[in-house]
Amino acid sequence: MAEVKDEIQRIIERLPNEVLSDVWDYLKQLENSSKGEIELSLHLRKILTEDKNLLHRLAK
Questions:
Q1: How far apart are CA 7 and CA 25, in angstroms?
Q2: Alpha-carbon span 28 to 32, nearest angstrom
Q3: Which of 4, 5, 8, 14 lies most in the core, judged by the most C-beta atoms within 10 Å?
Q4: Contacts of 48 (CB under 8 A, 6+ apart)
Q5: In this structure, are residues 23 and 15 in contact, taking their beta carbons and an 8 Å threshold?
Q6: Owning domain of residue 49
Q7: How many Å apart are CA 27 and CA 50, to the nearest integer?
Q8: CB of 35 within 8 A of CB of 42?
Q9: Domains contained in the chain, number
């Protein structure tokens, strides 16, 4: 787990300052969310990512 935290820290250090507040807001939301809410969000993200092409076609 320490490796994951270190990599997250390295990524944050490379991000432009303009997005840091958005990342901070997102992390605060995660911190205040239940495990079920986090899992639901992750599943939704996976679905949207996997079906990106389909969503683009449906939007046209």
A1: 19
A2: 6
A3: 8
A4: 55
A5: yes
A6: 2-59
A7: 24
A8: no
A9: 1
Per-residue pLDDT tens over the stretch 27-42: 999 899 999 999 998 8
pLDDT for 14 equals 95
Q: What is the pLDDT of residue 46?
A: 87
Structure tokens at 4: 């994951």
Q: Which two tokens stand for residue 55?
A: 């969503």
Residue from 20, 47, 18 nearest 39 by CA = 47
φ and ψ at 29, to 5 degrees? Answer: -60, -45
Strand, helix or coil at 34? coil
